[in-house]
Amino acid sequence: MKNITCKNILLIIKREFKTRVMKKYFIITTLLVPLLFGGLMILPAILTTMSGDKQRIAVVDDSHLFEGKLADNKSLYFITDNTQLEELKKTYKSKNYTGILYIPAIDINNPNGITYYSENQLGLQTKQSISSKLEDILRKVRIKSAGYDTKIIEKLDEGISITDKVLGEEEKQGNSGLASILGYISGFLIYIVLIFYGTSVMKGVAEEKTNRIIEVIISTVKPIELLMGKIIGIGLVGLTQFFIWFVLMLSINMILGLVFADEILQYQNTMMQGNDLSQMHIDSDEMGKMLTQVTQANWALIIPSFFFFFFMGYLLYAAMFAAVGSMVNEDSDTQSFTMPVILPIIFSIFIMMRAIEQPNSGLAVFGSIFPLTSPVVMLARIPFGIPSWQIVVSMISLIIGFIFMTWVASKIYRTGILMYGKKITFKEVIKWLKY
User: Fold this and answer.
1) Which H or E run contains 344?
2) What is the pLDDT of residues 148-159, one digit of tens each?
3) Are 384 and 168 in contact (CB under 8 A)?
4) Contacts of 141 by beta carbon, 8 Å cutoff, 6+ apart
5) Residue 42: CA atoms inside 13 Å, Cβ hemisphere, count?
6) Is the distance from CB of 314 to CB of 193 less than 8 angstroms?
7) What is the rounded CA–CA span in Å between residue 189 and residue 314?
8) Whose CA is closest to 18, among 226, 240, 317, 322?
9) How far apart are the first and last CA of the chain?
10) Residues 6 or more apart whose Cβ sits within 8 Å of residue 115
């Protein structure tokens, strides 16, 4: 039997890469996914600005507390009308009003009786917007009637922003918000990759086995060579697709941002008008701090770590999925064998969420070092500035885990890939590992 050769592995890698990137499915998904995400980002702004849904609301204010104080926004216009309510109910449509907002002579401490009249049901978002405007005005009236200065009260409502400092050789400023966002994005991205491309390996192996192509291939190369070539080849397809997605998404978002700049600006103004201005000020301050600290994030560590855990995590699980693909003869058998492989990935997500809340807890540290969960959990912890030794231990552990899992998968693969027409059990798989 011939020794394992890199030449054979490289030939299989080339075959897997070439056949998959030339498929219509790969080309279509590579082009459509960035367009879809770009559309989802710009569509709300376009729909909001192009909808033209403007509501003119007649305000009959018998309390005289809200006259001239209801501010208009992009879709709501408030017009004070001194016509008697009963008469206005008959003529409001001829005056081009959408509805009538009637405010009786209310008690400011018990404001009952405010009613909206129209032939059409008031939308939930519109109702909440009107209620919010009335509540803000009434709050200021109550404060003034109590003899307090509204500006002083607003100062009392100002929030508190906590700046966290990470102690070490150098005291440095941290940002849990930014770290959480990076953790979620990278963690879920790896989760999707493991599921999507891992199952691609499994389906590829299963198809070759079903079509008996594997019998021809296995006569010229060793099973371990075929296994490694297939895993690495499909992994390179994934990296290529992610790189193209990144470039296309960046380009599409820049182009859409320039083409629809006015629509985006109008949409942002509309959203701001529908919110409390003081809260928007606080949120914009926090956002400004976060954007400033994006440039201060340790990208020199985050980016290489992402690619390492992306590729090594994929290799680890791809070996397991390939072993599953070699065992199944029918699609109905797939579910029972894939569940033990998918469960650690699911557990990784739960540990990741806990790690983002408490990045230095015992569960978070264990999850970031254990090979089956480290690709997801460690990427969620790295933005929080964890000790370097934990990252090194996690990487070594993942490499050892990959080597061990590849050895296990190869023993299953070399036997299962040539077995047809027989339902394989876990007990039988354990016997294969002993030989």
Assistant:
1) helix 334-357
2) 776 776 666 665
3) no
4) 65, 108
5) 19
6) yes
7) 12
8) 240
9) 17
10) 101, 102
What span, in angstroms and rounded, lies between the C-alpha atoms of 78 and 95?
A: 13
**What's 55-144's CATH class?**
alpha beta
Contacts within 8 Å (CB) and 24+ apart, 60-63: 60/85, 60/88, 60/100, 60/101, 60/102, 60/103, 61/103, 62/102, 62/103, 62/104, 62/105, 63/103, 63/104, 63/105, 63/106
**Long-range contacts from 44-49, C-beta under 8 angstroms, 24+ separation:** 44/267, 45/260, 45/263, 45/264, 45/266, 45/267, 45/268, 46/260, 46/263, 48/74, 48/263, 48/266, 48/267, 48/270, 49/262, 49/263, 49/266, 49/267
Nearest to 204 by CA among 23, 433, 424: 23
Task: Mean pLDDT check: name the lowest of 8-17, 223-232, 307-316, 372-381.
Answer: 223-232
Nearest to 334 by CA among 202, 194, 200: 202
- Average pLDDT in the 107-111 region? 82
d(C-alpha 220, C-alpha 213), whole Å:
12
Question: CA-CA-CA-CA torsion for 114, 118, 119, 122, nearest 10 degrees?
Answer: -70
pLDDT band, residue 399 (cuts 50/70/90): very high
Distance CA(368)–CA(297), nearest Å, equals 20
CATH 3.40.190.10 in the chain: give the residue spans.
Answer: 55-144
- Spell out the residues 6+ positions from residue 71 whose beta carbon is closer than 8 angstroms to its own: 78, 133, 273
Eight-state DSSP code of residue 369: H
* Amino acid letter, 80: T
DSSP-derived 3-state class of residue 165: strand
Nearest alpha carbon to residue 261 among 73, 48, 45: 45
Residues 249-257: contacts with CB under 8 Å, at least 24 apart: 249/34, 249/37, 249/38, 252/34, 252/35, 252/38, 253/38, 253/41, 256/38, 256/41, 256/42
Report the percentage of the chain scoring pLDDT > 70: 72
